[in-house]
Amino acid sequence: MSFFSTGNILVHINLGVGGYDLSWIEAVGTLFGLLCIWGASKEKSLNYLFGLINVTLFSVIFFQIQLYASLLLQLFFFGANLYGWYAWSRQTHNHQGMTLRIRWLSLPKSLIWASVGITGIPLIAFNIDRIFSWLTQIAISIIKGLGITVQISDLEPNSFPFWDSAMMMLSIVAMILMTNKYVETWLLWIVIDVISVVIFAYRGVYVMALEYIILTLIAIHGSCLWIKSAKANNACALSSAK
């Protein structure tokens, strides 16, 4: 059986009702996801290579289980990882230009991003089923355009519209902030990971809940490291600078 098949089971984990079958592709994808976050906490540009592998493998997973909207979102994260790798590497090797350093958002930028989140989360929450249906149709059109046959199943109404919307919006903002080395990215990842732990535990998917507990710990570690780096760079939170 192919490594890329979700039916190629690595191990059965006896957690939750009926346990959980962990496939090889999910296990490897998750490993690279953890390496990506850990590398980012250490300010290593290589973390984006791990991130690219992670989103690629999870795109294959989402394609197989017909989560086409999530598949399309992975394409955004793929592009964000490419940009982040370029931005971090360019600043590392360009000794003539300004170095991209870890810092806090200024007050004006904090207000802008807070406005984006406060506005975006309820907008997505009230329209999340339509949004994911629309994203799914776009993804299917792209896949069919590549000559690949796909099965279309009916989308179930979202069980946690507000929290899923919050995670979606905050994940996009956090990824953008990370590519620009803002400390606030880790604070957002902590919030996202804690919400994920609660939702997965409530749904009985304890393996995923455990994974996000690990991600939460890494995010806390990353925030501590980046706060120290920002202080060493004489960066202040909520400064008046633009």
Provide a compact summary of the structure.
This protein is mainly alpha-helical and 242 residues long. The chain has 7 helices and 2 strands; from the N terminus they run ββααααααα.
List the helices and strands and how they pair.
Elements: E1 9-13, E2 20-23, H1 24-41, H2 47-64, H3 68-93, H4 107-145, H5 161-179, H6 184-202, H7 206-232
Antiparallel strand pairs: 1-2
Helix pairs in contact: 1-2, 1-7, 2-3, 3-4, 3-5, 4-5, 5-6, 6-7
Strand order of the largest sheet: 1-2
Instruction: Tell me the number of strands.
Output: 2
H/E element sequence: EEHHHHHHH
Helix content: 55-70%
- How many structural units, i.e. domains? 1
Q: Report strand %.
A: under 5%
Rg is 19 Å
Major beta sheet summary: 2 strands, antiparallel
- The outline comes out as globular
Number of helices: 7
Backbone structural class: mainly alpha
Low-pLDDT residue intervals, each spanning 5 or more residues: none
Give the mean pLDDT. Answer: 84
What is the terminal separation in angstroms?
55 Å
Describe the structure.
The structure is a single chain. With 242 residues, this protein is mainly alpha-helical. The chain has one domain (9-95, 103-232). The protein is built from 7 helices and 2 strands. The chain has helices at 24-41, 47-64, 68-93, 107-145, 161-179, 184-202, 206-232; strands at 9-13, 20-23. The chain has a two-stranded antiparallel sheet. A hairpin with a 6-residue loop joins strand 1 and strand 2. The protein starts with 8 loop residues before the first strand and ends in a 10-residue tail after the last helix. The mean pLDDT is 84.
